[in-house]
UniProtKB/TrEMBL annotation:
Signal peptide: 1-20
Keywords linked to the UniProt accession: Signal
Origin superkingdom: Bacteria
Name used for this protein in its record: Outer membrane protein beta-barrel domain-containing protein
Native organism taxonomy: Bacteria, Pseudomonadati, Bacteroidota, Cytophagia, Cytophagales
Entry keyword Signal: yes
Length: 201
């Protein structure tokens, strides 16, 4: 009986040890020390950010915005590219589809950099418009420009999660009203950094 108990204890300990090792092997990766290589000259940046998802109970307004983007690093830490602005507002009495194209320039600051994350600044300028259902002001185009401050945290060798604080000015009819607007927003994004020709991370 004693030997059976000892054998059972041995196999139980072995099983827990194997499970603990397997748990360590399958734990998801949450950080990667590649920030410097990812923002090097010749690399590409593709991804999207999502902002302004919400519902206003008082005005019965639902808002959703998404901004796909692509860029190219013209030098270490500096990228240029363009993003598409797509948005949707549903409000009492109608719907509004918003669109635009905004070239951008982004700079990753070497100051305060770490192997797993980078701070960056971004400026955009372009055009935007909207198409309100049953509106005489349908399909209005006008200027949109702004600046953003952001933080990129690398979760894999070429993937970063980003948070951005944006200050955007638009004269386009992108709101329910026809007036120009300036506003702050917070956006979250996922960016993929692709190595240039002959490079690897």
């Amino acid at each position: 009986m004693k030997s059976v108990f000892t054998l059972l204890l041995f196999f139980t300990t072995l099983s827990f040890s194997a499970l603990a090792q397997d748990d360590q092997l399958t734990r998801p990766q949450t950080t990667a020390a590649v920030a410097g290589e990812a923002v090097a000259k010749g690399n590409w940046l593709v991804g999207a950010s999502i902002a302004n998802i919400g519902h206003n109970f008082k005005s019965e307004t639902f808002t959703f915005d998404i901004n796909p983007r692509a860029g190219y690093f013209i030098s270490d830490n500096a990228a240029i590219g363009a993003q598409v602005q797509l948005g949707f507002i549903a409000y009492d009495g109608g719907e509004d589809f918003r669109y635009g194209l905004t070239p951008f320039i982004r700079y990753y600051f070497p100051e305060g950099a770490a192997p797993t994350h980078r701070w960056f600044g971004e400026a955009i300028v372009g055009f935007a418009g909207s198409s309100m259902e049953d509106s005489e002001g349908d399909a209005i185009f006008d200027a949109v420009y702004g600046v953003s401050a952001g933080y990129a945290h690398f979760v894999a060798s070429n993937v970063a999660l980003e948070g951005m604080l944006n200050l955007i000015r638009s004269n386009a009819n992108i709101d329910v009203s026809n007036d120009s607007s300036t506003g702050l927003s917070i956006s979250l994004g996922l960016q993929i950094y692709l190595p240039g020709s002959g490079r690897t991370f």
